[in-house]
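worker-3 :: picked DUF5709 domain-containing protein
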Amino acid sequence: MTDELRPPLEESDAVADAIEDDVAVDAFITGGGTDRDNPEFLPPGQEPAWRTGADQPWDPEDLAVAEGRDPTPENVARARKELEEDGPAAIERTVP
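worker-3 :: tokens ->
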């Protein structure tokens, strides 16, 4: 049966039975946790705990590879200079 011919889920027998029996319908169960459709809202004034790519230590070799470059001595030297000059901002540009 194609989606065009299938009635909406709300009109299915399973939903009618669930309403009548007060039973959960599998298609409506989300797992109970937060997700894209059920976000967690923070109280006013509370800041979220963001984790970024710069929260962990980075070697120049890692930065060169993350930028899509081979870890050649030239690319590693350029990445080392970038890390020394820009610090975490060098990583944030590549791995936000």
